Automatic annotation (TrEMBL):
Lyase among keywords: no
Single GO MF annotation: glycosyltransferase activity
SUPFAM superfamilies: UDP-Glycosyltransferase/glycogen phosphorylase
Glycosyltransferase subfamily 4-like N-terminal domain span: 25-192
Protein name: Glycosyl transferase family 1
PANTHER family with a match to the protein in the record: D-INOSITOL 3-PHOSPHATE GLYCOSYLTRANSFERASE, GLYCOSYLTRANSFERASE
Domain Glycosyl transferase family: 251-346
Length: 383
């Protein structure tokens, strides 16, 4: 991407300000608000530009509680729900104007397609949380069909134009580079999560999963098959219907619906076996939450989970319902192994902190800002 048309300013009052996009549909919201809080602790202001369906009252209150952060509900379409390339281009131009209006020093896009046809005045960081191309490759084994291909092409264009591309794992960095034929491998910055302490309760024999249950990439159908073979329940938290009409029904899983963070913490406090059969998972914040609570992990054998949880989880072929049932049952029946796996997962989870994530992102911002703003950022971070 060309250098900014004018030197980036150091925000109002000498403070660096980042325009950060977010959406309330999936894990990107949690990522963005956690990052905004981590950046606030480094004296970096954020403008949270919420796109897509409006945030819930609970999400809105959480975002507004972050010091130095301004929530702007743009009502702009998400790239994967936009009906045309023009809609994405228009959204990009609106964000560019928003960045100018808020005197931002840098723009972080959590959907790279927004940069495909937009010239921002500021440096742009594109974070490859997920995209249609890598999702399609992981779930279907090839490239998107022609009715969807334009979305993937816009993502590739935006990634190529960004000043820096970041991915939450090395696995998704490699997949993104391959699918979109990038000249350079994206920089890996592992996600971090700001978690409340989980109040332990009496341990119970059950399995638990959480996430966008309707998403075929989560492959919850395999877990439904596994649940039929378990002598105890498998509970699942999260929506069963997506914003584009995708829906899943269960025969054996006990669906809990969408739960609050506090409600999920209550379930995790019983230290169930946390299970994921995902075919596609660029990071997996739900797994991190479960690990931080001391839950033993039984996970799909995919590159992302191997990268993050090797040595502390049991891995199963994501299409093997019998394998999941057997692995879950073995963990539940062995109290010592269950406790030790939970302890090891908790130790690993401590490595993925918001402080580490925010510090690494701040270093990337500093490398891209013009000298005055970069010097201001260095002073703020050191303060």
């Amino acid at each position: 991407m060309p250098q900014p048309a004018h030197p980036a300013r150091a925000g109002r009052g000498g403070t660096v300000k980042i325009l950060l996009t977010a959406d309330a549909v999936g894990g990107v919201w949690q990522y963005a608000t956690d990052l905004a809080q981590g950046l606030a602790d480094l004296n970096i202001q954020t403008v949270l530009a919420a796109m897509g369906p409006p945030p819930s009252p609970r999400q809105r209150d959480a975002a507004r509680s972050i010091d130095g952060s301004t929530l702007v509900e743009t009502h702009l379409p998400l790239d994967w729900l936009a009906e045309s390339p023009k809609a994405i281009a228009d959204a990009g131009r609106t964000l560019a104007e928003l960045a100018r209006r808020h005197d931002a020093d840098l723009v972080q896009l959590n959907a790279a397609a927004l940069a495909a046809e937009t010239e921002f005045d500021q440096p742009v960081v594109a974070v490859a949380h997920s995209c249609l191309g890598t999702w399609w490759r992981a779930t279907k084994g090839d490239d998107p069909d022609s009715p969807f291909r334009w979305r993937s092409e816009l993502t590739g264009q935006g990634l190529a134009l960004a000043d820096r591309v970041v991915a939450p794992t090395k696995a998704i960095a490699r997949a993104t580079k391959e699918v979109h034929r990038l000249a350079q491998l994206p920089t890996t910055v592992h996600n971090g999560r700001s978690l409340r302490p989980v109040e332990p309760v009496a341990s119970h024999d059950f399995a638990f999963t959480a996430g966008r249950l309707w998403d075929k990439g989560k492959n919850v159908a395999t877990l439904d098959g596994a649940a039929a073979r378990l002598p105890f329940p498998l509970h699942a938290a999260g929506p069963i219907e997506g914003p584009s009409g995708d829906r899943i029904e269960f025969n054996h899983i006990h669906a809990l619906g969408t739960l609050s963070d506090r409600e999920i913490s209550s379930w995790l406090g019983a230290r169930p076996v946390f299970v994921s059969a995902a075919l596609y998972e660029p990071f997996g914040l739900a797994v991190l939450e479960a690990a931080a609570a001391g839950c033993p992990l039984v996970l799909a054998d995919i590159p992302t989970f191997r990268e993050l949880w090797h040595g502390v989880a049991v891995f199963v072929d994501p299409m093997d319902a019998n394998g999941f049932a057997e692995a879950i049952s073995l963990v539940v029946r062995d109290d010592f192994a269950r406790a030790e796996m939970g302890r090891q997962a908790q130790l690993r989870a401590a490595q993925f902190s918001v402080e580490a994530m925010a510090g690494k992102m701040a270093a990337i911002y500093q490398s891209l800002l013009r000298p005055q703003a970069a010097a201001t950022l260095a002073q703020e971070v050191a303060a």
